[in-house]
UniProtKB/TrEMBL annotation, chains A, B:
Domain of life, source organism: Eukaryota
Gene Ontology molecular functions: ATP binding; histidine-tRNA ligase activity; identical protein binding; RNA binding
Protein name: histidine--tRNA ligase
Source organism: Gasterosteus aculeatus aculeatus
Ligand binding (L-histidine): D65, L66, T67, R92, Q108, D112, R261, Y265, Y266
């Protein structure tokens, strides 16, 4: 997954190919720089790509997401099926907002399934994974909105949007989670030059939300039916919901015609996981697309993805396609929500897993502390000492209280003579003498639930 | 630890300070770009820093290591003591060598202890950690070489190296693990203009290796004694070894006067973990520093670090120092060694943790497969299906053999009627009927040791 490694591997392979004397490839395809790789994949978001120049003068960029590098990796290594997750940093020249977990350098966590498979089976698995992650993380209630690029395009066509305006109108529809329908409509008509009639027809469709029955209803819709693309998308949504029923996740998944993720590379199903509990996270709380949403308002997207069947082919010299579907989990945003929850709760969050501090009550016992520390470390106990020759007992105990270390093993002249250690429970201040031989087991017993 | 975040935080704070109306700080210190942060910290290695320009025209660089960003983080957040590990990518414009795990973009794993503590206690803990990591990873035999920047500087002084040549002569000494003493001597004399006499005196010292007793002997050495710096370093080495004895790691630690790590920021103890088993890893196998090493030859450094007491102060507006000691683990190099060991052994390395594949023997059972898959997933079993409506049983079994999945849960019309699943052990081809209710426990039982 490393951009520079891949670059170098590619350069080597191409050099080798040139030496060997070439093959019969008609279309010469030399992927020289990372900048070229990223160009033309992100639509209007391209302005957020960080460019950089290396000292050798090659034009380079910092990776914008993990999807495009993944697609390139598949093409360059001729991988036709794979399932993997990947956690790594990406970079965007966006306006950062620390409190909402929006940074310029941030981690993404991606899961993708690549390969030629039967319709909607891997897609359903991706949604099941988003469902399970958001459930496990205990972030409050959530919904997973689902739509399909083909349904959007078909809808634009039957509503009278000119072909060359699909992408830009799609970008405007994408703003429905941040601004009310009236403003979206205005942008379409005033800024993007769409007819009022077309905008109003779009407005009717994008207010629709539902499940499998909505897909069935739209398949009967006189106007929608005129688009073959839309029909194909709607049939797949139906099939998807049948698999989601088997995966027992339909209670959280909503077919939502207003969902229109911005990136150019999606070709089929698209989806977005949003938290619906107000107050869990700061963020936009405007009403969604003009109509009051079925549930509480959306407070922020924490996962998103879709199907991108054409991306790998763009990096393959012969244009061979590898269909892909995947999801990005917004871990920074999730972290900031979890942090805020932790701060709001009375419970103190520990930043260390140390089970026991090895302390001394008198002076000149550093060596004895280090000896006991070694015994504990070698037995797999998480232990620490203060890095002082003669720390005060009080400051050792205070350190434990501050950092939530539950136990203190206290050594003194008497304890050393008796072959015992005084084990102190920080919370209750209870102290018991434990024989040196039994200490490891006693610490394990007392910290096993921690 | 995120450079861009820190930049932004710093910019905000400085802007706020300007608004408030300034303070009495005499020395105005504005750290604007990452490039300035990295400049002047790495000595001759600075040429390996990747520079980059962002679209706004600010001069930026990719981080070269995790130590300098850590030091800046401490200074900017006024943290005076902390202990942390950090795994992240760094970038170097070096000549890559894939087989030896040398890349331009690679992961480092750092552990550092910052704070004003008593001498050598945190330093000894760092060495204990390197010892435990290298032991646990089962990389073959290893040594941890230890030296001290003050001993090197003192040695250079008493051998007659002019003050302004300490750093450049030190860089040459650092090459002793890659080239024989004769070549090192030649570089000192011919390229760096050192007198032959001084070079020969250095040659005598840098051939010395030992433990605490060597430090004691050198403390008695007439010439070495003339340097206060060297004496301070030697006393600390003695103290260090006394703690290492308590930590039970002296069998692997060698006080080696030829160790001279290149980076400018070290101020005290320095160390390097090297694998000593020939053939474990490809790499330099030249004899070390002219004299045959006590053990087998070194085959590559996999960990390194030292004390850097001045680095945090360089980022603090008031120059307040925070003493630090730390270590970097060369995880890419370790990975390439482990990969080569895995390839050389007959044992197949699994790339997936899947415990069971849910398969079907007949057609039209996709829904039944997905239903069983959901049962298994919800019970925490790692399971998968092939993403096909009607996959052939043979191809499902082949997939298990190829990817090392140990069990197959096979559904057929008969099994569904009987309320059972045919559980097949891939290795032995044994098949047993298991009741649906008992399946989860049976899979757990059969894969618990895996």
């Amino acid at each position: 997954m490393c951009v520079l490694q891949i670059d170098e591997e590619v350069a080597k392979l191409l050099a080798l190919k040139a030496q060997i004397g070439g093959d019969n490839v008609k279309h010469q395809f030399v992927l020289k720089t990372a900048k070229e790789t990223l160009t033309g994949k992100y639509g209007e978001d391209s302005k957020l790509i960080y460019d950089l120049k290396d000292q050798g003068g090659e034009l380079l960029s910092l990776r914008y997401d993990l999807t495009v590098p993944f697609a390139r990796y598949l093409a360059m290594n001729k991988i036709t099926n794979i399932k993997r997750y990947h956690i790594a940093k990406v970079y965007r020249r966006d306006n950062p907002a620390m409190t909402r977990g929006r940074y310029r350098e941030f981690y993404q966590c991606d899961f993708d399934i690549a390969g030629q498979y039967d319709a909607m089976i891997p897609d359903a698995e991706c949604l099941k994974i988003v469902h399970d992650i958001l459930s496990e993380l205990d972030l409050g209630d959530f919904r997973i909105k689902v739509n399909d690029r083909r349904i959007l395009d078909g809808m634009f066509a039957v509503c009278g949007v000119p072909d060359d305006k699909f992408r830009t109108i799609c970008s405007t529809v994408d703003k429905l989670d941040k601004m009310p329908w009236e403003d979206v409509r205005k942008e379409m008509v005033t800024e993007k030059g769409l007819s009022e009639e077309a905008a109003d027809q779009i407005g009717e469709y994008v207010s629709l939300q539902g499940g499998m029955e909505l897909a069935e209803r739209l398949l009967q819709d006189q106007k929608m039916c005129r688009s073959k693309q839309a029909c194909a998308g709607l049939s797949d949504i139906k099939l998807l919901f049948s698999y989601l029923q088997l995966f027992q996740v339909t209670d959280k998944v909503v077919f939502d015609l207003s969902l229109a993720r911005g990136l150019d590379y999606y070709t089929g199903i698209i989806y977005e996981g949003v938290l619906t509990q107000a107050g869990v996270a700061p963020g936009s709380t405007e009403a969604q697309n003009g109509t009051p949403a079925e549930e509480s308002v959306s407070v922020g997207s924490v996962a998103g993805g879709g199907r991108y069947d054409g991306l790998v082919g763009m990096f393959d010299p012969k244009g061979r396609k590898v269909p892909c579907v995947g999801v990005s989990i917004g871990i920074e945003r999730i972290f900031s929500i979890l942090e805020q929850k932790a701060e709001a709760s009375a419970e103190k969050v520990r930043t260390t897993e140390v089970q026991v501090m090895v302390a001394s009550a008198q002076k000149n016992l550093l060596e004895e502390r280090l000896r006991l520390l070694t015994e504990l470390w070698n037995a797999g106990i998480k232990a620490e000492v203060m890095y002082k020759k003669n720390p005060k007992l009080l400051s050792q105990l205070q350190h434990c209280e501050e950092s939530g270390i539950p136990l203190v093993a206290i050594l003194g002249e008497q304890e050393l003579k008796d072959g015992v250690v005084k084990l102190r429970v920080v919370a209750s201040r209870e102290e018991v003498d434990v024989s040196r031989a039994a200490l490891v087991d006693e610490i394990r017993r007392r910290t096993s639930q921690a």
